[in-house]
């Protein structure tokens, strides 16, 4: 059954560059993480004012998801509860945790506290796209493609979902990386088989 699943799109954000299906679409070197994420948001012409209030991890994940879904009418093809999100990373919400801890020494900010959970990035992507399907966030020392493959395959092969955004979104200060995959049952012209090997090749080399 897993052989019938396809990666229909993938996106990567790393080293101050945004990639769509292996091709660089935006680059802004010589700036810090915050400035880069803001520049990417403006370049991609995303309309989501809440972006400015979000933590770094959520900004990174939202940007990667917007690149991933561009030219894919997922919201029109599937019902809201048929599209899910499964993400992983190594640092959970540590970047926001540190900022909140430092800020709490003077005045604890509720606006920052809300981001001290790693799955908030899933919430932001879901709200932006009106997705209401199964979602989960796991923390690993490194990207575990085999685990993500098994988990997502189960969700789609058992008709819990019809499409799933999955992958890696990690950010800690100026160290960040996002690699997302759109997995569907329906095959597209540019589809590649949904396998752990293909996921790893994209994660490591940004290509198949």
Question: In words, what does this structure look like?
Answer:
The structure is a single chain. The chain is an alpha+beta fold. It has one domain (2-205): Thiolase/Chalcone synthase (Peroxisomal Thiolase, Chain A, domain 1, 3-Layer(aba) Sandwich), CATH 3.40.47.10. 37% of the residues lie in helices and 25% in strands. It is built from eight helices and eight strands, in the order βββαααβαααβαβββα. Strands 1, 2, 3, 4, 5, 6, 7 and 8 form an eight-stranded mixed β-sheet that branches. The mean pLDDT is 90.
Write out key terms for the chains shown.
single chain; 208 residues; alpha+beta; Peroxisomal Thiolase, Chain A, domain 1; 37% helix
Structural class: alpha+beta
Largest sheet: 8 strands, mixed
When the domains are counted, the total is 1
Assess the beta-strand content as a share of residues.
25-35%
């Amino acid at each position: 059954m897993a052989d019938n699943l396809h990666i229909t799109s993938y996106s990567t954000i790393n080293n101050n560059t945004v990639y769509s299906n292996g091709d660089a679409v935006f680059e802004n070197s010589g700036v810090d993480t915050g400035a880069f994420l803001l520049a990417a948001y403006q370049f991609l012409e995303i309309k989501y004012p809440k972006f400015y209030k979000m933590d770094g991890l959520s900004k990174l994940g939202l940007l990667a998801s917007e690149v991933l879904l561009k030219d894919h009418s997922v919201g029109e093809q599937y019902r809201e509860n048929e599209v899910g999100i499964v993400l992983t990373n190594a640092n959970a919400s540590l970047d926001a945790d540190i900022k909140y801890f430092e800020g709490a020494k003077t005045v604890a900010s509720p606006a920052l506290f809300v981001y001290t959970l790693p799955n908030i990035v899933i919430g932001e992507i879901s709200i932006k796209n009106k997705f209401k399907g199964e979602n989960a966030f796991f923390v690993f020392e490194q990207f575990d493609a085999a685990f993500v493959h098994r988990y997502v395959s189960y969700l789609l092969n058992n008709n819990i979902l019809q499409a799933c955004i999955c992958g890696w979104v990690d950010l800690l200060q100026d160290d960040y990386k996002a690699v997302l995959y759109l997995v569907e049952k329906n095959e597209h012209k540019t589809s590649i088989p949904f396998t752990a090997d293909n996921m790893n090749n994209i994660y490591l080399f940004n290509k198949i």
